[in-house]
Design a protein that fits this description.
By secondary structure, the chain is of the alpha+beta class. It contains 5 helices and 13 strands. It has a 7-stranded mixed sheet, with no helix packed on it. Helix 3 runs antiparallel to helix 4. The longest helix is centred in the first third of the chain and has 21 residues. The protein is globular. The two termini are 33 Å apart. The N terminus is likely disordered.
């Protein structure tokens, strides 16, 4: 079975490639309805291409081509595939690299640079992300350790904001997710921010983005919805290796 590393590996990881392979989780014998992380990284692109082919074939049928089956529920094929992944603490801890000086870290686990990116976010106690969008087809989030609180905001059309009263992102829901639970969001549903509500316990979450993206919009002030900033994606680590800056 191939490694979950993509073909293009940063130089910092090439030097320790042999060590990473030794430390990688061994291929496990799992029930037929369960997947290792390596198997998931192979099956996911195949599933995405299959979904796109079906939608293309049924183009024009608004019911068949809608996003109502991509919601993180049990009728969501991507969420169901993610639920099949058996990820023990021993497996995910090699990617869970924290930095006490940051609110959270983004750690790249796997990507094919085309259909998906799988990352692990490590949240320091009491810290959160800014409000942000998702310039992709969707974001799936699963809690590996601790709990995270999600605040969702109504999407606004920046071009139609006409006055100060309307130039605001309104929080329309708050929900706390615990270990093992899965959530889903896309820009059709709105924006969100995620954070660790605990003041003492770190949190770890697994995030799947389909397809990958290199930047997104963030809102540092919800009272100025028409003036987002742009945040470029960067990783604290890649494939279990701490990223270094020359």
């Amino acid at each position: 079975m191939p490694s979950i590393m993509p073909l293009s590996v940063p130089a910092v990881c090439k030097a320790s490639r042999s060590n990473q392979k030794k430390d990688a989780p061994s291929n496990k014998t799992l029930p037929q309805d369960q997947l290792t992380l390596e198997e998931f990284s192979i099956e996911l692109p195949q599933l995405i291409h299959k979904i796109k082919a079906i939608k293309k074939k049924k183009k024009g049928n608004k019911v068949a081509c809608s996003t109502n089956n991509k919601n993180g529920g049990h009728d969501d094929p991507i969420a169901n595939l993610l639920r099949q992944v058996v990820l023990s603490e021993e497996d995910w801890k090699r990617y869970a690299l924290f930095d006490p000086t940051k609110n959270y870290t983004r750690n790249l686990i796997s990507t094919d640079d085309s259909t998906y990116t799988l990352i692990m976010l490590c949240w320091n106690p009491g810290k959160e992300s800014p409000i942000h969008d998702h310039p992709c087809d969707g974001c799936w989030m699963q809690v590996c350790q601790g709990s995270v609180r999600e605040c969702r905001y109504e999407k606004v059309n920046e071009k139609t904001v006409k006055d100060v009263m309307n130039d605001r992102l309104w929080c329309n829901s708050r929900h706390t997710y615990h270990e093992g639970q899965l959530a889903y969001i896309d820009d059709f549903m709105g924006y969100h921010k995620v954070g660790n509500p605990s003041e003492t316990v770190p949190a770890v979450t697994l995030h799947l983005y389909c397809p990958p993206f290199d930047k997104c919009k963030i809102w540092l002030d919800p009272d100025h919805a028409s003036k987002p900033s742009v945040s470029h994606v960067c990783y604290h680590s890649q494939f279990g290796c701490r990223r270094t800056i020359d």
